[in-house]
Please model this.
Amino acid sequence: MDAILTILLFMAFLWFFTIFVLSRFFLPLLSFQPYPVPRKIPKEMRKAIDKIKKESKTKEEFLKKSYKLLTKKYHGGRLNTIFKPRYHFITGLDELWKMRGYIPCSNHNYLLRVFLEKSGLFSGNEIKIEYTFVNMNIHQYLKVNAGG
Model:
């Protein structure tokens, strides 16, 4: 019985280590440093940012409207996270912006960071990338200081 428990604990350790440490070395948007926001972004993305900025009275309102737009266009999914590993390597804004449907949380957060920083309302210091464990997988989320 002790041998089985030891094996199970070792397997659990390997899973956590792979998910929380190794994956962050190989997946660009999950790395230990924030993936850089490019200077140039797609024209349609720029239009969407400008429209939301014009409609928003506060930073918090801009944040909420940007999040709403992105969650209408994209969604997550724990099974897709496993069965669509290619999506974790997509970092080009042109390709990401043209997509619809599933994207990993890290891609979604990258797009939101681009919206926030390119609006000129937020700086990189106001956006913190956080990680947690959800559904036996690493999950990335953002903590944003919207001044409130």
